[in-house]
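Postdoc handover notes: sequence design on the structure in folder B. Input C-alpha coordinates:
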Protein backbone atom coordinates (compact mmCIF):
# COMPACT_ATOMS: atom_id res chain seq x y z
CA UNK A 1 0.00 0.00 0.00
CA UNK A 2 1.59 3.28 -1.11
CA UNK A 3 -1.17 5.63 0.05
CA UNK A 4 -4.63 5.67 1.58
CA UNK A 5 -7.18 8.45 2.07
CA UNK A 6 -8.37 8.98 5.64
CA UNK A 7 -10.94 11.21 7.32
CA UNK A 8 -10.38 14.93 7.81
CA UNK A 9 -8.45 15.46 4.58
CA UNK A 10 -5.55 13.34 5.81
CA UNK A 11 -3.84 10.80 3.59
CA UNK A 12 -1.49 7.98 4.59
CA UNK A 13 1.67 7.29 2.57
CA UNK A 14 4.53 4.80 2.38
CA UNK A 15 7.45 7.17 2.96
CA UNK A 16 10.46 5.01 2.02
CA UNK A 17 8.92 3.85 -1.26
CA UNK A 18 8.02 7.37 -2.35
CA UNK A 19 11.42 8.80 -1.42
CA UNK A 20 13.18 6.01 -3.32
CA UNK A 21 11.09 6.75 -6.42
CA UNK A 22 11.69 10.49 -6.13
CA UNK A 23 15.46 10.19 -5.58
CA UNK A 24 15.91 7.68 -8.41
CA UNK A 25 14.00 9.81 -10.93
CA UNK A 26 15.97 12.94 -10.00
CA UNK A 27 19.22 10.99 -10.20
CA UNK A 28 18.48 9.39 -13.58
CA UNK A 29 17.20 12.60 -15.15
CA UNK A 30 20.23 14.56 -13.92
CA UNK A 31 22.79 11.96 -14.98
CA UNK A 32 21.17 10.63 -18.14
CA UNK A 33 18.66 13.21 -19.36
CA UNK A 34 14.93 12.83 -19.89
CA UNK A 35 14.31 9.25 -18.75
CA UNK A 36 10.53 9.39 -18.88
CA UNK A 37 9.51 5.73 -19.29
CA UNK A 38 8.29 4.73 -15.80
CA UNK A 39 8.28 1.04 -16.68
CA UNK A 40 12.00 1.17 -17.55
CA UNK A 41 12.72 3.13 -14.35
CA UNK A 42 10.84 0.51 -12.33
CA UNK A 43 12.74 -2.29 -14.06
CA UNK A 44 16.05 -0.56 -13.36
CA UNK A 45 15.04 -0.04 -9.71
CA UNK A 46 14.21 -3.73 -9.30
CA UNK A 47 17.57 -4.75 -10.77
CA UNK A 48 19.31 -2.18 -8.61
CA UNK A 49 17.73 -3.58 -5.45
CA UNK A 50 18.95 -7.09 -6.28
CA UNK A 51 22.50 -5.82 -6.83
CA UNK A 52 22.46 -3.69 -3.68
CA UNK A 53 21.22 -6.56 -1.51
CA UNK A 54 23.98 -8.75 -2.92
CA UNK A 55 26.64 -6.12 -2.13
CA UNK A 56 25.47 -5.83 1.47
CA UNK A 57 25.38 -9.61 1.77
CA UNK A 58 28.96 -9.83 0.58
CA UNK A 59 29.93 -7.06 2.98
CA UNK A 60 28.84 -9.44 5.75
CA UNK A 61 31.02 -12.21 4.31
CA UNK A 62 28.27 -14.14 2.52
CA UNK A 63 29.66 -14.80 -0.95
CA UNK A 64 27.59 -16.94 -3.35
CA UNK A 65 28.92 -20.16 -4.78
CA UNK A 66 29.92 -19.95 -8.46
CA UNK A 67 27.01 -21.04 -10.62
CA UNK A 68 24.50 -20.80 -7.74
CA UNK A 69 21.03 -19.31 -8.14
CA UNK A 70 22.10 -16.36 -6.01
CA UNK A 71 25.05 -15.62 -8.29
CA UNK A 72 22.91 -16.02 -11.42
CA UNK A 73 20.25 -13.65 -10.06
CA UNK A 74 22.93 -11.07 -9.31
CA UNK A 75 24.47 -11.33 -12.78
CA UNK A 76 21.03 -11.11 -14.43
CA UNK A 77 20.19 -7.97 -12.45
CA UNK A 78 23.59 -6.40 -13.14
CA UNK A 79 23.26 -7.09 -16.86
CA UNK A 80 19.76 -5.59 -16.76
CA UNK A 81 21.13 -2.40 -15.19
CA UNK A 82 23.88 -2.24 -17.81
CA UNK A 83 21.33 -2.73 -20.61
CA UNK A 84 19.40 0.26 -19.25
CA UNK A 85 22.54 2.42 -19.46
CA UNK A 86 23.31 1.08 -22.97
CA UNK A 87 19.85 2.22 -24.07
CA UNK A 88 20.51 5.69 -22.68
CA UNK A 89 23.88 5.85 -24.46
CA UNK A 90 22.26 4.91 -27.79
CA UNK A 91 19.74 7.74 -27.39
CA UNK A 92 22.34 10.32 -26.32
CA UNK A 93 24.69 9.45 -29.18
CA UNK A 94 21.94 10.32 -31.69
CA UNK A 95 21.29 13.74 -30.14
CA UNK A 96 22.99 17.02 -30.90
CA UNK A 97 24.50 17.80 -27.50
CA UNK A 98 24.71 21.46 -26.51
CA UNK A 99 25.69 23.26 -23.33
CA UNK A 100 21.99 23.49 -22.42
CA UNK A 101 21.11 19.81 -22.80
CA UNK A 102 24.42 18.19 -21.81
CA UNK A 103 24.26 15.61 -19.02
CA UNK A 104 26.86 13.64 -17.09
CA UNK A 105 26.48 10.62 -19.38
CA UNK A 106 27.60 12.75 -22.34
CA UNK A 107 30.89 13.52 -20.59
CA UNK A 108 31.42 9.80 -19.92
CA UNK A 109 30.69 8.97 -23.55
CA UNK A 110 33.36 11.43 -24.69
CA UNK A 111 36.07 10.40 -22.25
CA UNK A 112 35.65 6.68 -21.43
CA UNK A 113 37.98 4.52 -23.49
CA UNK A 114 35.78 1.40 -23.53
CA UNK A 115 32.21 0.33 -22.93
CA UNK A 116 32.88 -1.56 -19.69
CA UNK A 117 34.40 1.55 -18.09
CA UNK A 118 31.52 3.69 -19.32
CA UNK A 119 28.85 1.35 -17.94
CA UNK A 120 30.65 0.83 -14.62
CA UNK A 121 31.20 4.55 -14.07
CA UNK A 122 27.60 5.39 -14.98
CA UNK A 123 26.17 2.81 -12.57
CA UNK A 124 28.60 3.90 -9.85
CA UNK A 125 27.28 7.46 -10.02
CA UNK A 126 23.68 6.21 -9.91
CA UNK A 127 24.54 4.30 -6.74
CA UNK A 128 26.26 7.33 -5.20
CA UNK A 129 23.51 9.75 -6.14
CA UNK A 130 20.41 7.69 -5.41
CA UNK A 131 20.70 5.32 -2.48
CA UNK A 132 22.02 7.70 0.18
CA UNK A 133 19.64 10.48 -0.88
CA UNK A 134 16.58 8.22 -0.77
CA UNK A 135 17.40 7.03 2.74
CA UNK A 136 18.43 10.46 4.02
CA UNK A 137 15.07 11.87 2.89
CA UNK A 138 13.19 8.98 4.48
CA UNK A 139 14.99 9.56 7.80
CA UNK A 140 14.61 13.33 7.44
CA UNK A 141 10.83 13.21 7.10
CA UNK A 142 10.65 10.57 9.83
CA UNK A 143 12.35 12.92 12.28
CA UNK A 144 10.30 15.90 11.09
CA UNK A 145 7.05 13.96 11.49
CA UNK A 146 7.98 12.97 15.03
CA UNK A 147 9.06 16.45 16.16
CA UNK A 148 6.29 19.04 15.87
CA UNK A 149 8.45 21.89 17.22
CA UNK A 150 11.09 21.22 14.55
CA UNK A 151 8.41 21.02 11.86
CA UNK A 152 6.80 24.30 12.95
CA UNK A 153 10.16 26.09 12.94
CA UNK A 154 10.97 24.69 9.51
CA UNK A 155 7.60 25.74 8.12
CA UNK A 156 8.01 29.29 9.42
CA UNK A 157 11.48 29.65 7.90
CA UNK A 158 10.52 28.10 4.56
CA UNK A 159 7.39 30.25 4.30
CA UNK A 160 9.43 33.37 4.99
CA UNK A 161 12.16 32.74 2.44
CA UNK A 162 10.46 30.57 -0.19
CA UNK A 163 6.90 31.92 -0.05
CA UNK A 164 3.79 29.77 -0.13
CA UNK A 165 3.63 29.15 -3.87
CA UNK A 166 6.84 30.59 -5.35
CA UNK A 167 9.41 28.45 -7.13
CA UNK A 168 12.08 27.14 -4.79
CA UNK A 169 15.53 28.07 -6.02
CA UNK A 170 19.13 28.25 -4.86
CA UNK A 171 18.90 31.82 -3.56
CA UNK A 172 15.83 31.13 -1.39
CA UNK A 173 17.11 27.77 -0.14
CA UNK A 174 20.45 29.28 0.88
CA UNK A 175 18.58 31.60 3.25
CA UNK A 176 17.01 28.65 5.07
CA UNK A 177 19.64 28.12 7.76
CA UNK A 178 17.48 25.94 10.00
CA UNK A 179 16.63 23.68 7.06
CA UNK A 180 20.34 22.96 6.58
CA UNK A 181 20.64 22.29 10.33
CA UNK A 182 17.75 19.81 10.16
CA UNK A 183 19.34 17.89 7.30
CA UNK A 184 22.76 17.80 8.99
CA UNK A 185 21.17 16.48 12.17
CA UNK A 186 19.35 13.84 10.09
CA UNK A 187 22.68 12.63 8.66
CA UNK A 188 24.15 12.52 12.17
CA UNK A 189 21.25 11.02 14.09
CA UNK A 190 20.49 8.34 11.49
CA UNK A 191 24.19 7.49 11.11
CA UNK A 192 23.41 7.40 7.40
CA UNK A 193 26.97 6.45 6.47
CA UNK A 194 28.17 4.09 9.24
CA UNK A 195 31.74 3.83 7.99
CA UNK A 196 34.23 4.91 5.37
CA UNK A 197 37.48 3.35 4.20
CA UNK A 198 40.86 4.50 2.96
CA UNK A 199 43.92 2.68 1.65
CA UNK A 200 47.22 3.93 3.02
CA UNK A 201 49.90 5.00 0.57
CA UNK A 202 52.59 5.27 3.25
CA UNK A 203 53.39 4.40 6.87
CA UNK A 204 51.60 6.48 9.52
CA UNK A 205 51.25 6.67 13.30
CA UNK A 206 47.60 6.47 14.37
CA UNK A 207 46.67 6.82 18.04
CA UNK A 208 50.19 5.85 18.98
CA UNK A 209 50.11 2.71 16.83
CA UNK A 210 52.32 2.32 13.72
CA UNK A 211 50.25 1.42 10.64
CA UNK A 212 52.26 0.26 7.61
CA UNK A 213 51.54 1.56 4.11
CA UNK A 214 49.19 -0.57 2.06
CA UNK A 215 46.89 -1.20 5.03
CA UNK A 216 43.15 -0.61 4.49
CA UNK A 217 41.74 1.65 7.24
CA UNK A 218 38.04 1.58 8.15
CA UNK A 219 36.75 4.80 9.71
CA UNK A 220 34.00 4.16 12.27
CA UNK A 221 31.92 7.23 11.36
CA UNK A 222 28.99 6.00 13.43
CA UNK A 223 31.12 6.15 16.58
CA UNK A 224 32.15 9.73 15.86
CA UNK A 225 28.61 10.86 15.03
CA UNK A 226 27.33 9.48 18.33
CA UNK A 227 30.22 10.76 20.47
CA UNK A 228 28.66 12.39 23.59
CA UNK A 229 31.73 14.58 24.04
CA UNK A 230 30.74 16.54 20.94
CA UNK A 231 27.04 15.64 20.70
CA UNK A 232 25.48 15.47 24.20
CA UNK A 233 22.47 13.13 24.38
CA UNK A 234 23.50 11.73 20.99
CA UNK A 235 20.27 9.78 20.40
CA UNK A 236 18.20 12.97 20.70
CA UNK A 237 17.22 14.68 17.44
CA UNK A 238 18.17 18.34 17.82
CA UNK A 239 18.94 20.50 14.75
CA UNK A 240 20.21 23.28 17.01
CA UNK A 241 23.42 21.25 17.39
CA UNK A 242 24.31 22.67 13.99
CA UNK A 243 23.54 26.31 14.69
CA UNK A 244 26.46 28.61 13.72
CA UNK A 245 27.21 29.15 17.41
CA UNK A 246 27.30 25.46 18.35
CA UNK A 247 29.39 24.45 15.35
CA UNK A 248 32.21 26.64 16.68
CA UNK A 249 32.38 24.58 19.89
CA UNK A 250 33.58 21.31 18.33
CA UNK A 251 36.29 20.21 15.90
CA UNK A 252 35.37 20.38 12.22
CA UNK A 253 36.29 16.69 11.86
CA UNK A 254 33.57 15.66 14.34
CA UNK A 255 31.03 15.88 11.51
CA UNK A 256 32.13 15.06 7.97
CA UNK A 257 29.28 12.96 6.48
CA UNK A 258 30.49 13.44 2.90
CA UNK A 259 34.18 13.02 3.63
CA UNK A 260 36.79 15.75 3.40
CA UNK A 261 39.64 16.88 1.18
CA UNK A 262 40.41 15.26 -2.16
CA UNK A 263 38.20 12.26 -1.32
CA UNK A 264 35.04 14.24 -0.51
CA UNK A 265 31.88 12.98 -2.23
CA UNK A 266 31.77 14.70 -5.65
CA UNK A 267 28.00 15.05 -5.39
CA UNK A 268 27.75 16.53 -1.88
CA UNK A 269 26.44 19.93 -3.02
CA UNK A 270 23.88 18.31 -5.31
CA UNK A 271 22.72 15.96 -2.53
CA UNK A 272 22.26 18.84 -0.09
CA UNK A 273 20.33 20.92 -2.61
CA UNK A 274 18.13 18.02 -3.76
CA UNK A 275 17.18 17.16 -0.18
CA UNK A 276 16.61 20.80 0.76
CA UNK A 277 14.25 21.44 -2.17
CA UNK A 278 12.27 18.25 -1.48
CA UNK A 279 11.90 18.97 2.24
CA UNK A 280 11.01 22.63 1.64
CA UNK A 281 8.37 21.74 -0.96
CA UNK A 282 6.76 19.15 1.32
CA UNK A 283 6.86 21.05 4.60
CA UNK A 284 5.40 24.27 3.22
CA UNK A 285 2.48 22.34 1.67
CA UNK A 286 1.70 19.61 4.22
CA UNK A 287 1.54 18.93 7.91
CA UNK A 288 3.45 15.67 8.27
CA UNK A 289 2.73 13.09 10.97
CA UNK A 290 3.57 9.50 11.84
CA UNK A 291 1.04 6.67 11.80
CA UNK A 292 0.67 5.35 15.35
CA UNK A 293 2.03 1.99 16.45
CA UNK A 294 5.17 1.83 14.32
CA UNK A 295 8.51 0.57 15.60
CA UNK A 296 11.26 1.82 13.33
CA UNK A 297 14.82 0.68 13.98
CA UNK A 298 17.98 1.53 12.03
CA UNK A 299 19.59 -1.25 10.00
CA UNK A 300 23.28 -0.55 9.44
CA UNK A 301 24.79 -1.69 6.17
CA UNK A 302 26.56 0.17 3.40
CA UNK A 303 23.91 2.82 4.13
CA UNK A 304 21.70 2.90 7.23
CA UNK A 305 18.06 2.28 6.32
CA UNK A 306 14.83 1.88 8.31
CA UNK A 307 13.98 -1.65 9.46
CA UNK A 308 10.57 -1.47 7.79
CA UNK A 309 8.46 0.84 5.66
CA UNK A 310 7.61 4.12 7.43
CA UNK A 311 3.98 5.17 7.16
CA UNK A 312 3.32 8.91 7.44
CA UNK A 313 0.22 11.08 7.26
CA UNK A 314 -0.12 14.23 5.18
CA UNK A 315 -2.62 17.03 5.76
CA UNK A 316 -2.63 19.91 3.33
CA UNK A 317 -1.87 23.32 4.82
CA UNK A 318 -4.11 26.31 4.08
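Designed sequence:
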Amino acid sequence: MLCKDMEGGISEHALCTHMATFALKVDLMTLFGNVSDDSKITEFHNNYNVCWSEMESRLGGKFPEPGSEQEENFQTALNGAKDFVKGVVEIREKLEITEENERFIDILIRHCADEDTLLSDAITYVVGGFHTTANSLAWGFYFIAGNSAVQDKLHAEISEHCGKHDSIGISSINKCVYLKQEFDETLRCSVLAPFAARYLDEDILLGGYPIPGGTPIVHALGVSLQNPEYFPEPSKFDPDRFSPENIKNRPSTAFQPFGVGKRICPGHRFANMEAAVCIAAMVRKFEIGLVDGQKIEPVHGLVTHPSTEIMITLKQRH
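Context for whoever picks this up: The chain has one domain: 3-316. Don't rerun without checking with the PI first.
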